[in-house]
Amino acid sequence: MNGASRIVGHRVLVAGMTGSGKSTFARALAARTGLPVIHLDLHYWRPGWARPSDGEWRDRQHALIAGEAWIIDGNYNQTLPLRLERAETVVLLDTPWWLCASRAFARGLLKPGGGMPEGCEDSRSRRLRDEWGAIGKIWRNRHSEPEQARAMVAKHGSHAVLHVLGSKREAKEFLGSLSSQ
User: Fold this and answer.
1) Does domain 3-179 have CATH number 3.30.160.20?
2) Torsion angle, CA of 14/18/20/22, rounded to 10 degrees?
3) Which of 24, 104, 109, 161 would bridge with 19, disulfide CB 3.0–4.6 Å?
């Protein structure tokens, strides 16, 4: 870990709507800080795209966030308070809803660049169903989801330093400020 990790802390939570750029930002932040990245989607799904029980998921997250250094990205708002309580820094990507929706549309067509959860096969039909289905959710929750995230941060993560980044330019500037420190 380097000086940039001292600036953002050793436990960083990256939050935002589906398609906001959480995983991309988390990887870029890891490159600047040397902190390990935890992509929640890789830990959530069991083989065959089976969902864990609520108890299993909470236990798995407790184990993931027990470490002293991490960058964690993903939604799973029901368990966001667990991650917020341990986070030193929260980066909320407040990406415009229409950009999130366009990214979900594109992900439905393109093979994902990141890894797949163990035992979960990628297919175009799954991507189209899941990603294009997310477009409706993004539209429906375009106002409520960002407000809910801010309320959760205020309630469970008030001890953490909050950075709200509303554009790709702001994200690049934030990351650039870390590498120059």
Assistant:
1) no
2) 30
3) 104
